[in-house]
Amino acid sequence: LACNELFGAGEGGLIQPPNPSRRFRLSRAHLAINNVTARELWRDFEIIRGMVDDLPVNSQRGAQALTVANQICNTFDRDDVKSLDACRALSKAFLNQGSASTSHVITAVGNCHIDTAWLWPFDETKRKVARSWSTQVRLLEQYPEFTFAASQAQQFKWLKELYPEVFQQVQAKAQEGRFIPIGGTWVEMDCNMPSGEALVRQFMFGQRFFEKHFGKRCKVFWLPDTFGYSAQLPQIVRQADMRYFFTQKLSWNNINKFPNTTFYWEGLDGSRVLTHMAPSETYAAQGNVSEVIKSVENHKDLPYTNESMLLYGNGDGGGGPLPAMVDRLLRLQNIDGLPRVKFGDPNEFYERVEANSPDLVTWKG
């Protein structure tokens, strides 16, 4: 049984080298049959409660959400299963009130960031890839709206060699445009210490792999969890046949806050790439109301674009989106008082921003 804690299998601190002798014991497992109506009501209530908690105290929709939440609580009778239907009628009537056409639009992209080398052995990384991506293939079968993006050619190569049936399923979903190979590099690499030649090879071997096995090169350079960014990168990205860049960790700086969310990054030679950092400030969102509200309130370039991305799904050690996350985002697609959410492809997000936002600022160097 492969098992890790959230930050690996080390001992003696939060981040420690893996202990190969450490053992975990599975002592109990539960089987359950879902009451579908109860589950759907709970998902509705999560959204309504989130609106109560996270909308401004004096907002009309926040007040309405509190009223509906109280009505649901007063209607529910744990001894009467029929009360679930009455409660759902209340929640659906509230959640079905649509948002304005001018509302901020969030493109929700499922992902499961997997550190290729961190707090576990390489063999565990290989298993994480197989477990995580096979789970996402099942979700793609279950939810027709759902999309999932994955980077790092090395991880695709491991999947192809060790789990060829899963790799074929991934290829099939990629043909549908819903399992989205992204990034264009061999791994999500450090960009401070490597030489220019080393960086070029990341793109060269990565793009070759994606073109060979998925029929096209990546357009988005995907680096959510790297600590630094060489000023060479825009030039290399453009010469690797890519136009766009996504990153996240830069937004976590608590000393020098970066002033932009969506902008052009210009390199030393004048090459530019359209860059976005999710204003939710995470690549492991859970699909909550607070995250979609933050996607607007923390967006630093709203005068120039009315769109953002939300990357959701458990990450670092893989896992990815859970059904509950997708269920919440399905409800958040069109609710009065909140931004609109759509499941989508990062490539299409960047293409829309590029076409519709001519006045974005440029960061040089």
UniProtKB/TrEMBL annotation:
Top-rank lineage group of the source organism: Eukaryota
Q: Which GO terms describe its cellular component?
A: fungal-type vacuole membrane
Question: Per the record's keyword annotation, is Hydrolase included, yes or no?
Answer: yes
Could you tell me the keywords of this UniProt record? Glycosidase, Hydrolase
Q: What is its EC number?
A: 3.2.1.24
Q: Which residues form the Glycoside hydrolase family 38 N-terminal domain?
A: 106-364
Write down the InterPro entries for this protein, in alphabetical order.
Glyco_hydro/deAcase_b/a-brl, Glyco_hydro_38_N, Glyco_hydro_38_N_sf
What terms describe the molecular function in GO for this protein? alpha-mannosidase activity
Tell me which stretches of the chain form a coiled coil: none
Any one GO BP annotation for this protein: mannose metabolic process
Enzyme's top EC category: hydrolase
Its name, as the record gives it, is Glycoside hydrolase, 38 vacuolar alpha mannosidase
Give the source species.
Answer: Dimargaris verticillata
